[in-house]
Specification:
This protein has four helices and three strands; from the N terminus they run E-H-E-E-H-H-H. With 110 residues, it is an alpha+beta fold. A three-stranded antiparallel sheet has the order 2-1-3, with no helix packed on it. Helix 3 runs antiparallel to helix 4. The model has no long low-confidence stretch (mean pLDDT 86).
Amino acid sequence: GEVIFGAGTTNESSITGEPIPVSKSLGDKVFAGTILENGTIQLRTDKIGEDTTFGKIIELVEEAQDSKSKAERFIDQFSKYYTPAVLVLAILVWLISRNIELAVTILVLG
């Protein structure tokens, strides 16, 4: 957006990562998602919702959370079978040997 009236100090750290307050006055550009720390300004918006820089950042974060790498998918698949296999192995060892310490050791190592 653009400042069309007033002046103030904004905090743009949610967009730029820069924690230093930025002064804004007539004609200055303002990012969606910034915080007005002091002053009074009136804005004219150029973009709204997902079209803003803040909206695009949110969209990228959501896409990153939804997508998994090949390694993550492999680990998910592996753990689906590995954990039950270790439990079954520990139970079998206990049933055969009647040694609870050995069964617990298998669980801990697994």
